[in-house]
Q: What sequence folds into this?
């Protein structure tokens, strides 16, 4: 497993411990249940006790330049084999089938629909948590926005929103949203005049058009963090 993925998982475990010490036993139990039920890829998308979500989805479009998204993709990992099958339904809707082959022979899978949007020549994927089985979303609501990068026909990168960048945008009123604090923890050395409470996550409340305008103006790499890397599975002749 790449070092970045290992760090994410270590941080995730540390965050669960913090939830426990904060007395959030019910939240911890739900999160641990999700840890068992979700394949690794969805677990990474749900990173933390609370994912960055948007109340409103991106407006879907049918950009033909995303034709290369169709196919079978394998997550770069030296442990379990995770495959992402991406294609279109007969109604021309994007469909995703996630299959994870565990080292112990167990096969875990999940199927869900997504939409794609292109803004200023940049591609995004919108995952509506309502599209997931209730046992998988564990009470989380809203939309998860991922950035799609296709460096070539054989490589796929999915990047998630950078919490620090989203919090900064909400703080300076360039993006409507809510900052969710962990009231049980305080920062030992916050910046002068800054809130001493520890930020847990953020929720974007801006409407769809406002999110599109924000993404159109903010195309730099700082808004999204490099996240999941896949290689296309090609047929063996």
A:
């Amino acid at each position: 497993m790449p070092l970045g993925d290992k760090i994410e998982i270590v941080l995730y475990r540390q965050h669960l411990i913090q939830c426990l010490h904060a007395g959030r036993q019910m939240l911890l139990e739900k999160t641990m249940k999700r840890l068992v039920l979700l394949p690794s890829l969805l677990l990474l998308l749900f990173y933390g006790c609370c994912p960055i979500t948007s109340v409103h989805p991106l407006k879907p479009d049918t950009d033909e330049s995303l034709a290369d998204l169709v196919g079978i993709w394998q997550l770069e990992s030296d442990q379990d084999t995770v495959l992402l099958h991406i294609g279109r339904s007969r109604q021309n809707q994007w469909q995703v089938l996630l299959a994870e082959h565990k080292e112990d022979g167990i096969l875990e899978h999940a199927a869900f629909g997504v939409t794609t949007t292109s803004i200023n020549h940049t591609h995004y994927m919108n995952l509506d948590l309502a599209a997931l089985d209730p046992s998988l979303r564990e009470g989380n609501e809203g939309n998860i926005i991922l950035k799609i990068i296709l460096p070539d026909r054989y490589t796929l990168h999915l990047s998630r929103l950078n919490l620090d960048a989203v919090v900064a945008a909400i703080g300076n009123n360039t993006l409507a949203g809510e900052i969710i604090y962990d009231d049980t923890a305080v920062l030992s050395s916050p910046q002068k005049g800054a809130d001493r409470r520890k930020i847990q996550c953020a929720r974007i409340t801006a409407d769809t058009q406002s999110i599109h305008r924000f993404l159109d103006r903010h195309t730099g790499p700082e808004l999204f963090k490099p996240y999941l890397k896949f290689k296309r599975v090609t047929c063996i002749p």
Q: What stands out?
A: The helical segments are 3-21, 25-37, 40-45, 134-137, 163-171, 208-217.
